[in-house]
Amino acid sequence: MDSENDQLDTGKSPEIVPSGGIATGRSYITDFAKSLPDTPGVYRMLNKEGDVLYVGKAKRLKRRVMNYIRIENLPVRLQRMVSETRHMEVVHTHTEVEALLLESNLIKKLKPRYNILLRDDKTFPYMYLDTTHDFPRLDKHRGAKKGKGIFYGPFASAGAVNRTMAILQKAFMLRNCTDSNFDSRSRPCLQYHIKRCTAPCVGYVSKEEYKSQIADLKPFLDGKSDTIKARFQDKMHEASEAQDYERAAVYRDRIQAMSQLNVQQDVNVEGIGDADVIACAREGNMSCMQVFFFRGGQNFGNKSYFPRHTEEDDTADILASFLAQFYENKPIPRKVFVSEAVNDQTLLVDALSERSHKNGGTRVDIVVPQRGAGKRVVDFAMQNAKSALSRKQAVSMKDRRCLDDMVKLFEMGRFPERIEVYDNSHVSGTNMVGGMIVSTPEGFQKSSYRLFNIKNADASDDYGMMREVMQRRFRNVTPDNVPKGTVFPDLLLIDGGRGQLSAVREVLQSLGIWDDLYVVAISKGPDRNAGREEFHIEGRDTFVLPHNNGTLHYLQNLRDEAHRFAIGSHRARRGKAAIVSSLDSIEGIGAKKKKALLHYFGSVDAVKNAGVEDLKNVEGISSKIAEKIYYSFHEDI
């Protein structure tokens, strides 16, 4: 959101901004503002490298941009932004609502340094009921909702949807197998024997009976759980009176499963319907947005967000900016309950409603509840927000101390805002990969992780692998030419010893950037025991830290995350290679047929899960070959 108090980065800024820079930036802004009309639109401020510093929207562009010329009215951080500005760009819109929608889209895409920024922008998982099949299956879904069926959610995490689906299978006994497995089964699978499926694949229930199972599930997910429980209780009593105790026990277990789901959801509120509940807890330049998802009055989980902002920003601005960015690519419920009023609320409601209408939704209301169920659930969300903020602050303070100690330990000349950690993984020289993770004072920055498939290094040459990774990471970089978008780390942490350190030095020296980077290698030490790690820095003797040293534990955590990422990527690649290799071992499958299979199904996993009839649809795959492929992956059938 844009306001008179612009949202700036939390990075350190000097108390005094050089007047020469301000004068130059002001001159650019003044010249640009002269040509602007007083109409709605979005403007971007850029530095001399062309990087976007800030994105803002305005009802009247000229008046808004002219505010930056009055330097004496700006705080120090805004003065710093003006001093860096060397160019501006503008997009005209028909209305202020359109400007707000475009602003939130550009902020999320460009991630400008001086905007309030929602850093965690993952899509949420859903449950998906495929209604195109005679026997619909309940499945997990993430991404665009393109399938013909019913979507339930969003859920706050994959864990939340997995737990919910496991319980719903106990309660409603729906299938979860793929269509290809369903079509090829000749006997019930384990799900039937543990009473989580009624085995429609082998005809143990008719279409009408299975349809009644679906008919029970839908109202339950719509919040009418008491009605379904009452129906199951009646059926349980009927079975008991008829002395059909096995059938009565089945309904008893299904009722218990539904009750278990309500208990796991912590809080369910009657009358709240479909709504998101967002509470903002704040202390200084750190805040926590706690988001709860309610659908049909049932709690589908919650998630914490820690947007980037400064101490000068108003909470109303932070909350408004969060809402605009959060719902940029997510479905919006009819009601959004918030812990306090937001700036430009009428404008934000119109913008979110327009976005909702485009996706087939209804008008959106932003509500600050004062009493009743809404107030209770907002208070509950606020308690969670305060707890999450306290935990985040405790971790941040501890990590900050470790980073400060690291500066002294490694004799660095600057505070490490960005640490890159490297690790390689392979088995006997196969499927060699190099992993790079990124850590900042705010934690791991997973959107910046990179994977390097090592192609040229010899399988027995660990140092060669590290050289190749460094060459790929800093490709085309020279002291006089840094490609646009290249981000330099403040510290390179290498998993390895003196040999790996020398390999890295060799590459960076050849590029002429060795003196610009701090590089530290960390090896396991004697007997490869945790706590006895050795640190290697060029020009210094190898040293160790006490096993109870906090900085050591912090560095171990970084090294372990890099190892997890590298070995996880290696295993995924090795697994795919194993399946492709198994295709090669099937008689009658050559390079042409393998290529056709992968092109048709899109992935090796899809080939593995395909049924015989599906395989026969691939060009060049006969019935005989299709059966060979199928049974090579399903030898137990």
Question: What can you tell me about this protein's structure?
Answer:
The chain is 44% helix and 17% strand. It has helices at 19-34, 61-66, 76-84, 96-110, 158-172, 179-184, 190-193, 207-221, 225-241, 245-264, 315-326, 345-358, 372-409, 462-473, 498-511, 550-584, 591-601, 604-609, 612-616, 623-633, and strands at residues 41-46, 52-58, 87-92, 126-130, 138-141, 149-152, 275-283, 286-295, 298-305, 335-338, 365-367, 419-427, 430-440, 443-444, 450-453, 491-495, 519-523, 534-536, 543-544. Strands 12, 13, 14, 15, 16, 17, 18 and 19 form an eight-stranded mixed beta sheet that branches. The chain has a five-stranded mixed beta sheet with strand order 9-8-7-10-11. It has a three-stranded antiparallel beta sheet with strand order 2-1-3. Helix 14 (462-473) runs parallel beside helix 15.
